[in-house]
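Why GH92 family glycosyl hydrolase? Reviewers of the renewal asked for a concrete example.
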Amino acid sequence: MIKIIPIALLILLVSTTNAQEKKDYTHYVDPFIGTGGHGHTFPGATLPFGMVQLSPDTGIEGWDWCSGYHESDSSVIGFSHTHLSGTGGADYGDVLLMPTVGNVNFQPGTKADPDAGYRSRFSHDNEIASPGYYSVLLDDYNIKAELTATLRTGMHKYTFPESDEAHIILDLEHGIANNVTNADIQVLSDTKVEGTRFSQGWASDQRLFFAMEFSKPFDKVLLAQEDKLVKSNTKAEGKSIKAAFNYHTNEGETIIIKVAISSVSCENAWANMEAENKGFDFDATLAQAKETWNKELSKIKVEGGSDDEKVIFYTALYHTKIHPNTFQDVNGEYRGMDMKIHKAEGRSHYTLYSLWDTFRGLHPLYSIVDTKYNNDFIKSMIAKYNESGRLPVWELWSNETNTMIGYHSVPVIADAILKGYYTGDVQEAYQAMLSSAMADGQGLNDYKHMHYIPREKEANSVSKTVEYAFDDYCIALVALKLGKIDDYKEFTLRSLNYRNVFDPETKFMRGRDENGVWNPDFDPMAITLFGSGDFTEGNSWHYSFFAPHDINGLIKLYGGKDAFIAKLDEMFEQDAVNDNEHAHDVTGLIGQYAQGNEPSHHVIYTYNFAQRPDKTQAMIRRVMKEMYTTDKDGYSGNEDTGQMSAWYVLSSMGFYSMNPVSGEYIIGSPVFDKVTINLENGKQFIIEANNNSDDNVYISSATLNGKAYDYTYIKHTDIMQGGKLTFEMSSTPQSWGTSIEAAPIELAANEDIEIEPRANKAFMPYSASSAQIFKDQLPVELLCQTEGVTIYYTLDGTSPTTESKVYSKPIILKRSTTLKAISIKEGYITSDVKSIQFRKAYFNDGKSEYPVLSTEATISQAYNPGKQTLIDGKLGSNNYRDGLWTGTNDKKFDAVIDLGTKKKISQVTINFTQNTGSWIFPPKSITILGSNDGENFTEIANEQYELPSHHVDILVLTKTIASKTKARYLKVIIESAGKLPSWHSGSGLPSYLFIDEITVE
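Here is what the prediction returned.
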């Protein structure tokens, strides 16, 4: 029997089906999450990986205003077109517009006094934000501002009150923690404007071009330079360029402004506008933005869980799709790392790579749901390599900022090659990876030679060593895939370098010097920051579990699985304290686990390797519940361009990329009853969790495609083939996944390929005492960290051999001497040559009146150990916080040293520390003058020094100036580097000069 369905019912069925297919996932996204606390997100309008991020700016200075917005504010400056999401550094805020009524004011005003400028008060109750949309009522002007965006354009809709003095202010001086180097504006007609904004900030050379069009012709335009009106009403150029577009408006009248941007030219900006936003239909543009976001968010469908958990999930998924950003114009052109114009052929080009953060979870998430995007992200990295000779480290608007550590482009590229979806030239990509690993600087010279980084040679030596080791493992895997066996062996050995900073006695990753001596002041709780100390934004607890490629090897170092579990437990049971008030990133603490910063992100999942998946399951659910909320401070730390969110997206689905390139994901505990991943190949992978709840966090059993599944990991290939992973959940720990066979295995070396281990190398000899400056004589006792060595030495400056003197007892020095020594042991490679400069000099050991130093220089309050510390015979270490270094940011430091009587002076040696990441630079020049009466000085010597042209971390620089004179008084004039150079993130601000010791011989 044939049933005839009534037309009305058929229409109802079709519309119901379409409604199901077009579920509004944007309903679950709250862009305000992360705008409070230290999340550093912005609430404005953008498209997935869009070039434009159109958002309100409420503040432009201070760490919590890296995105330009913080929920603690109650006034808004205006709406600019570029923003950073969740970063720990600030920049952008280009091309700001602000609608006003009343008198024209080109000053922005302040938070304390908004009436002093065009800034307006607002209430958070009158804000609305959703993907692709933002609106706010500007209380001071009774103007409703609404924002939306296309990929390369921003669209403003301002609804005015009735006014004869309505204005739209354009402020090209405004920026977030950056300075304009040049800007210009060209008024093309009464509806069209174009211009440029070139700036210097975190990106040292940002060049932005814009095109702007108004829906209503403006009555008049006022142009200002340095806040003073210029005669021309068509163009203005300078560092402080602003404009006021004046209108008469009726009550409820709307004016729409479109702004397109480009890194290439105004012509390209207009082409972007023509292609993407031709008309002035705000609602249609918004609808398209919403549709675009729904398409992206629908790649993962979650069911079950609470509404709050859905909001957290889809907001996190939203935040994973803001950066990197489209950078090529509609014609394919973009400005490259060489500042030349290039064209992307057959791909999209992107900028903004926060790779220290995102290699861990964000790019592995892309490898599941966004391979097409990630493929182009990687091709963009390779293009940057070809343009600059380097893979990106932390790239921003085609500028390498050199922020953070490692060469973490490598794991992102390697993962795509190993998973088989990279469509670029694999050999070219491999050479690019090798170029990073074989480069010099950033501690790599010592890392390659000594197989770890000595702490006195480089800041963050432990963090760099362990992260370089992981990156090397990634290269080894690609080398193996390409059949480059020699490279595979070499980089596998390099990947084990992390073991050289693991202290078997304390069972911690620990800094050691070039002699192999462990940091004597080691405290596993002590946090050090990027650019200083042994760790990057963390402490030893945070880094002592970082060997994601060799977890089973790490477990052996700890003494086995029980000891490893005990150490993990101890970390979570420590006091949740942060001993450094400046370590803003070390947040979200459970004991010494820090969810608010990336080094901890993989740690909980390592319990699975020790056959305790129940501990992973319980702790993962705790972190997701406590550290992710729907509040504005709903992230426990910087959102970090998607990494903090990617961790949640992956973990809430039930697994995480503990080793980002292993092709396996470690299973945790799923939040949702059902997750459907809609793969790009048209297949679906479904994760179901039966009997799931806040209490039932433990997995009692699992099946994969209907078959029993006991493994505590899932392979990438299983996910991409489509299928169903089903968990049965329980309120108590179960035996599932606790067998040896069920546990994942991560070993750096492929057991099927024999690799001959490196021969042991003897450590260099070193002096038992730190004293290198003496008055009369100095006994020198030599030690070596390698037991059973024979030490050979010389005192004449020549390199020692087995024909040199054998050390047997302390050496008595009576004059300035260069001691050189080697260690030799049968079966070991001979040590490097140790060279120590001992100086017989005049100094004040506190037992005599002279010499004495006087200075009128302004010393930093935090780095003022006392003037006499500069001549006390004790040398400052590589740690400029050790209490011996004198710091100043004056343009020059001058001091007079009174030797007490006329002395013969052969040379003056001054030690400086150089740590450009902490704004500490070597001197520009040193002048030495002598006097016998303390009033009339004659120049003895003058030396000029070349300043670094790139970031250089900790180096203790010794400047020795020869002299042949007799004098009682010495005047030392040290000229600082002055303002930080253009390539530096603090460009234009004063550099610091750190001094210790001034040695007079």
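The radius of gyration is 31 Å. This is the kind of structural detail the renewal will allow us to pursue systematically.
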